Amino acid sequence: MAHSALLVMDVQRAITDRFTVDAGYLSRVRDAIDAARAADIPVVHVVIGFRAGHPEVSPRNKTFGALARGGGFAAGDPGAQIHPDVAPAPGDVVVTKKRVSAFAGSDLDMVLRARGVDSLVLTGIATSGVVLSTLRQAADLDFGLTVLADGCLDSDPEVHRVLTGKVFPRQADVVTVKEWVTSIAH
Asked: Where is the Isochorismatase-like domain (predicted)?
């Protein structure tokens, strides 16, 4: 029997503020979190975070180089906080990553293996960023994968559609939050 964990990735204030978050997005993610807790499935929040001055960011990195110049996601940055609608509860693990994938520069794999987790349920912002990168790396690490399609968000709806409809199903089960919640409630 699979031992799953729900990953809630990059649902941080500065990220949700940059996206057009549909009215139901955060409540759907909250529903997934509540269902996971009720089913004793660990909830792991994955955040992007850097040290003051961003010493871990290369100026050659297009994505994070610009972020470092702006000072974002360093200690004390209010934008780095997890959105309060999906905030961690006591017992939830918060993992800090240094790149796009939830595994890059973090201790996520160690946390999951220590808990006997062999299957991941993915949610997060953005579908074409953290979700895609984490899915690919998790598949290479032999985790079973489920993506909650409406628990992911992307600035480009067409990219989201292609990834969740055509790319992700090659390596993961792709379902809605409601379908997943129903499946674990039994």
From this structure: 4-178
